[in-house]
Amino acid sequence: MAENGDVGHGATAPDDSRPLIFFCTGNSNKLAEVQQILGDRSVRLVAANVDLPELQGASPAEIAEAKCRSAVRQLQLSDAELPQNALVMVEDTCLCFNALKGLPGPYVKWFLHKLGPEGLPSLLAAYEDKSGYALCTLCVAEVGRVKHEGDEPHFHTLEGRTDGIIVTEPRGKRDFGWDPIFQPDGFKLTYAEMDKAVKNSISHRYKAMEALKEFLARKVSTMRR
Known about the structure:
EC 3.6.1.66; Maf protein; ITPase-like_fam; dITP diphosphatase activity; nine-stranded mixed beta sheet; 9 strands; 29% helix; nucleotide-binding; ITP diphosphatase activity; alpha+beta
């Protein structure tokens, strides 16, 4: 595991009272974006590379919670230290086409693997409506509040959504999934064409992280009462 890029346990002073978040992802691009968005250093972010299941037939919120439950179990069975203020977080990202009633949605990873960013827009070739939205769903588990072995942590689901259109041909860098085909409303650039700082101030992930910050602020406020 790595905390803000530093490998190993105990990288943070033990009296640090900031929330400790184990972010379960093996995607370095996601980790970098989350680190930039949460750049106010109000949290301690630890990358936890666990083997998350690929689920089908459920809503984004249900998928995120199921993944989070799996991550919690794996961390509890590992040598990871889960102190009192520890949180475990997973993210599930969807790209939804309105003409297709939300597809590919949570299955966009498989569609992208088979079709690539060049092929995804072809799903809308027969439709005039090219609108869609990017959805980031977080599930956060309060593992530090578990008092007895076998007890379940509290799970919280948070979302961020950015509406836009699906462009007919990819534009911009090809290093981050479907970014080259999604153009957010109010902009003439796709995610992939944007400066990272701009994208990270308007994206679905940014909005989900803003919801996370609000959740953490409420949590800290409650603890101080």
